[in-house]
Amino acid sequence: MIGILTDVTKCIGCHKCVGACVDANKLDKHIPAPQHTSDGLAANRWTSIIKQPDSHYVRKQCRHCLEPACVSACIVGALKKTKSGPVVYDKKKCIGCRYCMMACPYGVPKYEWDTPVPYVRKCTMCYERVSVGKQPACTEACPTGATVFGDRDKLIAEAKLRITKNPEKYINRVFGEVEVGGTSVLYLSDIPLGFLGWKDDLGKEALPKLTWSALSKVPTEFLGMGAAMTGAFWIIGRRNKMRAMKVKEEAEKKAVENETGDAGTEEKGEDSNE
Amino acid sequence: MNKRQMVKSLLWLLIGFGATSGFLRLVHGLGATTGLSDATPWGFWIGFDVMAGVALAAGGFTMAAVVYVFGLEQFRPIVRPAVLTAFLGYVIVAIGLMMDLGLPWNIWHPMVFWQYRSVLFEVGTCVTLYLTVLALEVAPIVLEHPLFSHPIFHKAYKILKHLSLPLVILGIMLSTLHQSSLGSLFLIMPFRVHELWYTSNIYILYFISAAGLGCAMVIFESTLTSLIYDHKPRQELMQKLGKIASVILGVYLVFRIGDLLVKGKLGVAFNGTGTSTLFIVEILISTIIPSIFFNWKKINGNTKGLFWTAAMVVFGFIMNRQNIFLTMSKKGPAYFPWVSELMISLALVAGATMVFIFFVEHFDLFGDGAPDNKKEIGEKLITGPFFGADRSFVKGVAIFTAPVIAGVGLALMLLPSSAIKGYQYPNTPVKDAVGWDTLSIDGNRALESVLFPHAQHQQMMGVSRDSCMTCHHMSRPKDGPTSCSECHQDMYLATSIFSHGYHQTLMGGNKSCDSCHVNTKAKAEVLSCNTAECHKLLPSDTTSYLADSYVDAMHKKCKDCHEEQAKQADGFIAMGEQAKADSVKALGYCTACHPGLPPESKVRLSVTR
Amino acid sequence: MEQFLEFAKGSLFAGSFVIMVLGLARTAFITLWGTKNALDKAGDKNIPYKALIKETFEWMIPIKHITNSRSAISIVSVVFHIGLIIVPLFLLDHILLWQKLGLSWPGIPAAIANVLTITTIVTGGILLLNRIFHRDTRFLSSVIDYALLVLILAIFINGFIASKPFNPIPYNLVMVIHVMAGNLILILVPFSKLAHCFLYPIMRIASNIAWHFPARAGEEVNKTLYGEENKKV
Predict the structure, then answer these.
(1) Kind and range of the H or E run holding B291
(2) Does chain A reach chain C with at least 3 CB pairs under 8 Å?
(3) Is residue B88 predicted with pLDDT exceeding 80?
(4) pTM (global) more than 0.90
């Protein structure tokens, strides 16, 4: 399981990673309009540098969650969590429903709004480069080693080592170790990183579990409803039949009795019974 | 024109609107024709067409359950319209979804690529299946028409009639699933959906509300049809239906409030923010007031009261489905549906109404469809052409094409320009050029600069005051070197560069107005910038203050000259100076200035203005 | 004002143009269909098509017909139509407008355009006066006939003075009036008698077919309407 560790304290905001990403993935070079993107990410920017107060630079990219919400949301399985870690996208399957964009707790997948044939675009952790043994373009380009590539477990160990060495420098937490079930892209930081996602604390539970709790009930619901409806039909149908029979019997009975009685009152009684 | 023709004309107008918008949507893509963005990937089409559309179609399964399963035979006359409405509702959903999908031609993919962990997959599958079931339930109504007198159709009709109960039960099962699953869609966004709307039991709420809304929708639509077609409204039935609805709405209310109570979030509903007000209004309109009205003799005793109460429920639940999107937390620009989105949604509703009207006029929609009276019904039905004003095709065309044409034209007038011309890139501010002898200009901040040999240009022009003015033509404050981007502030659009405030202060505040705005004859005129010795070098008619876009300015300045130089290549070849010809020729390509582009490219690649 | 002018020249113009094209198609369809129906009902099916086509062209350049008592008005009318067709289509400024819709053709020199505009304004004025003062013509005219003529004249006058140095009114105002009136005319074309610009040949055929109804057709109508045979309508 591979991962990326970004140390916010080491980043100098040089944008080399952004440039490398653009080159490696052959993205459109035009910088997205500020009014279209709040975090610098767009269909043609898979990673961005977010400037924070006091010369802090935070690189945003796809977190490649261990249990990704986008993958569980995708209706056709166009997004896939690979065994080695990266979450990749198969544009041949995509239908363009954009549920992944709604589901992502970090707001990472972006859409190509400017074309009539749009696809979802996001960081793939340079899956093609990684699978031939190279490292992602961004980590390769980083001049200060602020963002490094490696085995996820080793990166966590390295991060914890850095914290123990400099406890006053860092917030005592490896961002992404347990967040929403853990992410492949980890952060070390001296400032809170809540702005990367929807909320400061996204919790430890993986989001797909929330839907699965409802989805797992679906077969029961389906068959239960079927059984209930058939049952109701049968019971009510039977009751109506019984009532009809009863009415008929009574009518017959009364008809026998009535050979001497008055016919008018009887009919009235029948009507009210119905 | 009579009442029905007016209604139809209006519907045709809306269809004209929607057809134009829909066509442009398919041609130019989502970004050009909708207000959707990365901040709001789901907008009005999902919120209204899909969420509300499915909910409104709930009348079908509710009425089918009431009549077929619970055996309340007195409701049978309204089953057929309810089922038809449901069918049309789902067709709206399907077409609306096609509009909303980025790649609508891939809509069949979920049937092949199964991803059963996605709620959307479940919704999609159920909707597809239920649409099929509904089509089979509607088919007998169509088959009664004399047009289908062939024995094959008769056989099919009989089979479908026999299958009606299993179909109904299957329909109810499927409806239950996807009505609730529409709510489950939001389960994965606990951070985005507002806490007043988010609950882990949201699917139960969606199901109950759909059932209640279904009843209200049936009241709404059958009153409306009886109004248009001068039928007598079935007052007593509607009254009973209203009472059923009020019970379901009551259950919904208990669940909704109870859930908030258990979570301990009920206080949020009364904290006085806009969101809490929205919540209270929604609950009042959709649930509390209608369930009182449905049981209040004064109101449920007359058609008008029932109709407006039902309309309130319908509106309330459309609001409920929309609110969840409205209150969703997000980062980025605010979303408001564009006129094209509204037009397409309206047109879909109009189209469905049109089909409904078609059924009312040509089929036995309000009959009971007993299996043996097919022939009898067939004799009653109108067989003339649909368009007909009085059953004449041309007359119908004459009447109803006019609103369609008006719709198309009006749509073109009202749609935003990007919907007609294609996606337009937003304004991008340009950055200053950096450097001295050789300026490197990174206008679009793409981390890639155009090299501008300043010194060389200076020499070429002859160093004099006038030659500087050729490029640095504006006397900017402090007489510093004017960077291009100071005037050409925008990458692609002409920008206003005249600073009124600056001029005003410089010339002495309020007293100075008349030095530029002078009174001649009857009206005030603005003096040209070169009068009164202000900017002597500007042309005499300069009062406009729009600077060209950066791209235009740069291209104008350099491109002509470059192209002219490139033309000399042939001359050099004739003289036998191949090397010189090549170097001159290279000037004609974009790569001469933009080193990042593919070699020999002559057009701008990614951005079209 | 400037922005509204852009809007009027852009979206509004495109919309009006599309309304005109679709509207004309609609009118043509209805007329043709009606003609076909009439033809089906006609008793005499021998329609002299060749003669009809010849006649159509003859009326286009009605030299033959300038022998009647009002030949002067005929000539004025022809001159009026020449300017009316050529200026909107071939004026250089208008060609820019057509290019927005993806249409393109060469324009005419400004001098010729000016002359044509003036002749159109003058002849249009004469036609208007004729409508007002000639007894028979006035009898045949309705409000819309005057309105259309005035509208056309307004467009030409506004367009003419807009770019001239002696223009006393602000340029933008003149242009807004010019463009908006032009858009209105485009919208009115299919729904008024202006449709003859496109339907002219069809109309000739349709009106000729009117002469081929079965004999005594009127009596049949009478019978259907009133149920009796020889009642005078």
Answers:
(1) helix B289-293
(2) no
(3) yes
(4) no
